[in-house]
Amino acid sequence: MHSPISDTGGDSVVVLADAASLAALAGADLLDVPLRFGPVVVPDTAEAELGDDDAALADKVSSWIEANGIRAGARTWVVRAPVGGTRGPRLATDDGRLVPGGPIDHALLRWLRENVLVQGGSSLVVAEGGSLSDLMESIALPDGVAVLDAAAFLRLAAGAGHLPDEASGEMPGAVSAGPGSEPVTSLDSGPRQGPR
User: Would you say residue 109 has pLDDT above 70?
Assistant: First the structure.
């Protein structure tokens, strides 16, 4: 099977894994920021969930995906990941403990393993707190893979000089690290990287 993420040229792959992350970036007009890191993956499930929650933001995201789709010679692009998965009961281990995440979260994780994580290099998975984030925290992630929320991603982008000048001012709840916090400036200084 050919992966849509086959050669990133050393760039990070950014996975905007859920509707909340998409909404945060689209609402702040910062959808192009992930492209400054490298190729971007938007799971179909996240896009569909955003459509259920906010039709105007969903249209904005859909237009952005279409405008930035895979193009010959482009260094960065956006791909829709056909994750699928259906809503259903939570999975349990043999001893009856509930596994973090639901069927959609596990379908996304399976797609990530098959299409992104096997490529090596670095990957940033942007997911707000919830079942997907909990699932990613409960597994051992490969080196170079970090899970962070939209605010931490924007702090990382600001530290790397990837925010547009007009966005580097005050953005409540997005770029501000908060009192006494150090900004996230690299994969080694803040994002969750799973248990070791």
Answer: yes
